[in-house]
Amino acid sequence: MNLSAVAFLGIRHLKKHRFKTALLTLALGLVFFLPFALRSSLSFLETQLKSRAALTPLLIGAAGSELELAFAGLYFSAADLPLTRYGAIDGMDATSRATILPTLSCFEAQGHPIVGTTLNYLKHRGIDLDAGRSFALLGECVLGAQVAEETGLGVGDSLFSSPETLFDLTGVYPLKMHIVGVLEKTGEADDRAIFTDLKTTWIIAGLGHGHVEASSTEASARLSAPEGDEGSIQLNASVQEYQEITPETAASFHFHGDKRDYPISAFLLFPKDARERALTRAEIAKDPSLQTIVPAEVMSTFFATVFQLERFFLLIFSALAVIMLMLALLIFRLSLQARRDEFANLALIGVSKEDRIGLTLFEGLVVVLSGALIAAVCLGILQAALPLILRALL
Amino acid sequence: MESAESPTATPAVRIEDLTFSYGEARFRLAIPDLSLDKSSQVAVIGPSGSGKSTLFDLLMGLQPNFGGTIRILGEDLYGRRESARSSWRLENIGFIPQNFALLDYLTVREQVLMPGKFLRGRDLTKTEQKADSLLERSGLVEMASSYQDSLSQGERQRVAICRGLAHAPRLILADEPTGNLDPETQRNITSMLIDESRRLAATLLMITHDHSLLSEFDQVIDVSKWSGKGDA
User: pLDDT at position A163, please?
Assistant: First the structure.
C-alpha cells in the first residue's frame, strides 16, 4: 500500500467533508469519553472523600441521615441537617476519653460556610496560619486560604455573616466579623471555610447579643413596666442592637438561656484508643436523639451505592457505544456506497484494490483516533478540573 | 529504454485471436488480429454498444475472462496478478474517462498530481513539474487551486486529460473525451490530446463519434466489424 498517497487522498476527503467528519468524530469522542469520565470522576471523588473521612474517627450528631451528618462534619454542608445540643455529650467530655471538637456550620458569609468551633480544631487538623493570628475574642474569625483568595479579604478586613438565622428570621442582624488571620492552604474543605469561635456563631444565631445598657435608654425605647414589677425595665424594638463586637461593646454581649441547649451541627471525636472508641459509641447509642457515625464507613457505604449506580450508567454507556458504533458503521457503509463511482474511477486510473481499501481504513482510523484523542484531551481537562468541580459541589 | 528502441519494434497493442462475450444478450467481441504502433494516434469508432469501451477495459487489464492474447507495450498484462496489473496500469496507461471522473475533494492541481502520488519509486518533483507545465499549456494555471464544481465542462475535461498525462504514460486511452462538448471545444481538446501524446511519444487511442475529427489521427479502427450479439 502506498501510505503517503492514501493519506493524501484520505485527508483531502475528510477535509472536504469536514462537517460530517467532525460530527462523527465528536460523537465517537463522546462515546469514548463518557465511561472514562465517569470512572475517573468517581475514583477521584472516592479518594478525596475517603481520605478526609479517614482523618475523623467518629462523628456525633442528631439522629437522622448518617450521610448528612458526615458531610456536615467533614465538609460543613448543613442543608436540612438536624442540630444537636451543645450539652448532649457533657458527661462524656468529662471522662476525657476522647478529644472532642464541636462544630456549628449552618451560617454563611459571602457564600462560604462559617464554622463555629474551638481553637483545638485548627490545631487538631494541623492547619497553620499563613498570616495573622487565630481567633481569640468574640466576633473574630480566620479565613480558609480559598476564601481569602476568592474574596480578596485579609487580616484587618471584616466581613458580614449572611442575614438569615435559624431561630429568629426577623430580628437578628448580620454580624460584622473581624478577620484576624488567614490559614495556610490545605487542599481540603477547610480552605473554603471561615472559622470562628463557637460563641460567635451562637451570636449570629441570635442566642447572644449586645445592646446599650437598659438603664441608659431613652423613655421612648422603654415599654411600660408590668404591674408589680415597677423596678424592672423592658425595652421595645427601637433599642439599638450592636452588629459588631468591638472592645467597647464586647462587655455588653451576653447569652440568654442554658448554654447546654445551644445548637451544634456535629461533634468530631478523636478517641484515645479502640477501647475508648467502643465505649464512646456504646454510651452515645443509649441516647436515641443522637447518632455516632464512623465517617470512613459511611463513605464506604455511600460509594458502594454510587458504584452500583456507576455499573448501571456504564451499562447505559455500553449500550450507547454499541448503538453509536452501529451508526458509525452504517454511516461508513452509506458513505462507501455513495463513493462507489469514485472508487470505480480510482480503479480505472490504476489505484490498486489495496490502496482503495487502505483509503477506506485510513479515513475510518483517522475518525476513530481523532475521537479517541478528543476523549483523551477532554479527560485530561476533566481531571485537571476535578478538584475545582469537587470544591463547587461540596 | 524507450529512446533506444525503434518506435515500431514492439507494437503498443498486439491482439491475437481475441474472443470475449458477456451479458444475457451474449455480446461478443472477436478480434483475430490487431497491432497498433507505438507513438501512433488512433481513433476508435463504432456505434454505441459496439464494444469500444469493452476494448478499453480489455486493454487496461480489467476483463480477465477472454480468449486469445493481449500484449500491451510488449507485456502480457493478464499474466500478472490483479494488484500487479493495477500497478502496471497506473505506471504505463493514462486513462481519460468520458465522465471526467474528477474527485470533488481535490483541487485541479491535486487531481492532476494524484496518479503520480500513487506511483512507487517515481520522483514526485518531476511529476509536479510535468503537471504544472500541462496546466499551463491547458490554460488551467489560474484554476489550479479551484475545485471541480467551479469549472466548466471543457475545463473539467482538460483537467481529466492533464491527470491522464501528468505521470507520462506510454499508452493513453481516451474514452470519448469530447462527447459532451461543443464543436470548438471538441476540436481543441482533440488537438491538445494529440499534441500532448506526441510530446510524450505515447500511443493514443481515442474513442470518438465525431467523424470530422478522424483526419487528425494516424489510424482509425472501427470496432463494430469485430462485435455482434447472440450466439456465435
Answer: 67
CA distances from B91 to A357, B86, B106, B171 (A): 20, 9, 21, 10
pTM assigned to the model: 0.69
Residues of A in contact with B101 (CB under 8 A): 341, 345, 348-349
Helix or strand or coil: residue A381? Answer: helix
State pLDDT tens for residues B97-120: 888 888 889 999 999 998 888 887
Q: Which of A195, A122, A207 is nearest to A159 (CA)?
A: A195
Q: Decide: helix, strand or coil at residue B50.
A: coil
For an interface test with A, which of B117, B127, B148, B165 has the most A Cβ atoms less than 10 Å from its Cβ?
A: B117
**Contact (Cβ atoms closer than 8 angstroms) between residue B66 and residue B58:** yes
d(CA A10, CA A16): 10
Superfamily of domain B39-61+82-226: P-loop containing nucleotide triphosphate hydrolases (3.40.50.300)
**Which bin fits B73, alpha (ψ -120 to 50), beta or left (φ > 0)?**
left
A20 Cβ under 8 Å from any chain B Cβ: no
On whether the CB atoms of residues B32 and B13 are closer than 8 A, the answer is no
Which residues in B lie closer than 8 A to residue A351 (C-beta atoms)? 86, 90, 115, 118
Q: What is the mean pLDDT of residues A127-138?
A: 91
Q: How far is CA B54 from CA A2, B61, B171, B226, in A?
A: 29, 11, 17, 12
Q: Yes or no: say if A189 and A75 are a contact pair by the CB < 8 Å rule.
A: yes
**Chain center to CA of A339:** 54
Cα(A325)–Cα(A371) distance, integer angstroms: 12
Q: Where are the domains of chain A?
A: 3-49+302-393, 58-214+237-293
Question: What is the distance in angstroms between the Cα of B108 and the nearest Cα belonging to chain A?
Answer: 13
Higher confidence at residue A259 or residue A377?
Answer: A377
Q: Can you give the residue ranges of every domain in chain B?
A: 39-61+82-226
* Residue range B200-229, pLDDT digits in tens: 899 999 998 888 888 888 999 999 998 887
Quick check: A114 and A166 in contact, CB under 8 A? no
- Average of per-residue pLDDT across B22-44: 86
In the 8-state DSSP scheme, what is residue A294?
Answer: -
CB atoms within 10 A of CB A335: 16
A305 touches B at CB < 8 Å: no
Bridge-based pairing of strands B13-22 and A140-143 is unpaired
Q: Report pLDDT for B207.
A: 92
Locate the chain A residue with the closest alpha carbon to B84: A352
**CA gap B111, B124 in Å, rounded:** 14
| Cα–Cα dist A217/A231, whole Å | 15
